[in-house]
From TrEMBL:
UniProt domain DUF418: residue ranges: 234-348
Domain Heparan-alpha-glucosaminide N-acetyltransferase catalytic, residue spans: 18-203
Keyword Cytoplasm annotated: no
Membrane-crossing residue ranges in chain numbering: 62-82, 94-110, 116-133, 140-158, 178-196, 208-228, 248-268, 288-306, 321-340
Record-given protein name: Membrane protein YeiB
Source species of the chain: Microbacterium invictum
Taxonomic lineage: Bacteria, Bacillati, Actinomycetota, Actinomycetes, Micrococcales
Keywords recorded for this protein, A-Z: Membrane, Transmembrane, Transmembrane helix
Length: 358
């Protein structure tokens, strides 16, 4: 029975109806966020491979946001938006997903684990996608480009609003996921929507994402090396390239990196190497489960071993990255082959069917 189930679910994971490269990119994003959470990383130096792990900082969460847009595009028709009735149902179910992501995010924040939980921001971004899902790829690419170029100039002004001050402001920041401000991060979501509307089954699309994304990343690095804004100024905030700065160079560079990663993963999964990447693809087939599971296990372990879920240096001193990564790869692969869809992905789909049946 187990062998038959494994064959069935392996076919689903590897079948023509699934974009294996998207699963691979999601798996990389999840494990990249593990690294950003659990490792103390040196500053990135292109000439020193030992520092390349720093690429996970900031870029993993941006890749996660771009892939959210890709996922929304795929469930609303892929290269061609669904018809009016089907699109209306899809919108309602996306809204339910948004609510669930937000609720799970608030619950994870309540554990006291010292990370900026992305799920509340993810929920807000899903809602922002609703009026955009009927648009074609060209329009979405234009909107994404405009947002990417304009919002870094606006974001410092939004960050400086008095609404974020005091305890109330801090609470508002947490429930909105303002460490990943939706006003700026919507650019990454729309870029993902545009990519998903561009027919990811075509190798030309994959090559285009790889080349254009890599070009944007290189351009941002060149701009960063060419001009340095005066420190502690508005222009420095706008021009910033560092992780989670929301600066123009981060948006261009890390956004381009995310698109290039998706393109590279899609191309790799057209080769036999896709089988080597099966465990990563299994993680990417259940990113909600893997992300939530990591933080729940973290909270339990920290409470038992350290007596404090918020002790980040103490938890990192336990060197949890490789145990977390290896267990996640094994557990997700076994679940995908024996049981199929991830547990939280199943729960989300079930709630969507209950709340929005038609």
């Amino acid at each position: 029975m187990a062998a038959a189930s494994a064959v069935t679910f392996a076919r689903a994971l590897n079948g023509p109806g699934r974009l294996q490269g998207v699963d691979l990119a999601r798996g990389l994003a999840v494990l990249g966020m593990f690294g950003a959470h659990l490792l103390v990383t040196p500053e990135f130096v292109a000439a020193d491979p030992l520092t390349w792990i720093d690429l996970a900082n900031g870029r993993s969460s941006i890749l996660f946001a771009v892939l959210a847009g890709v996922s929304i595009a795929l469930i609303t028709g892929g290269p061609r938006p669904l018809g009016r009735s089907a699109l209306g149902l899809a919108r309602r179910r996306i809204a339910v997903r948004a609510a669930m992501l937000w609720l799970f995010g608030i619950a994870l924040i309540a554990t006291g684990v010292p990370v900026y939980v992305i799920l509340p921001a993810y929920g807000v971004l899903f809602l922002l996608a609703l009026p955009l899902v009927q648009l074609r790829a060209r329009t979405l690419w234009i909107i994404a480009a405009v947002l990417a170029l304009v919002m870094p100039w606006v974001q410092p002004l939004l960050n400086a609003l008095p609404v974020w001050e005091g305890a109330t402001g801090g609470s508002l920041s947490l429930v909105l996921g303002w460490h990943y401000p939706f006003t700026l991060w919507v650019a990454f979501l729309v870029a993902g929507l545009a990519a998903g509307r561009s027919d990811l089954r075509r190798s030309a699309t994959s090559r285009g994402l790889l080349l254009s994304g890599a070009g944007a990343a290189v351009l941002a690095m060149a701009m960063d090396a060419t001009f340095a804004a005066p420190p502690d100024t508005y222009l420095a905030e706008v021009w910033a390239s560092g992780p989670h700065t929301g600066g123009l160079l981060e948006v261009i560079g890390s956004g381009g990196f995310a698109l290039a990663t998706i393109g590279a993963c899609l191309l790799l999964c057209r080769t036999p190497l896709t089988w080597v990447a099966l465990p990563l693809r299994a993680v990417g087939s259940m990113p909600f489960t893997a992300y939530v599971g990591q933080l729940v296990v973290w909270a339990v372990m920290a409470a038992i071993i350290l007596g404090d879920t918020g002790d980040l240096p103490g938890f990192r001193a336990l060197e949890p990255f490789w145990p977390f990564t290896i267990v996640t790869l094994i557990a997700c692969t076994a679940w995908a082959l024996l049981l199929g869809r991830g547990p939280l992905e199943r729960l989300t789909a079930w709630v969507c069917r209950i709340v929005a049946p038609r």
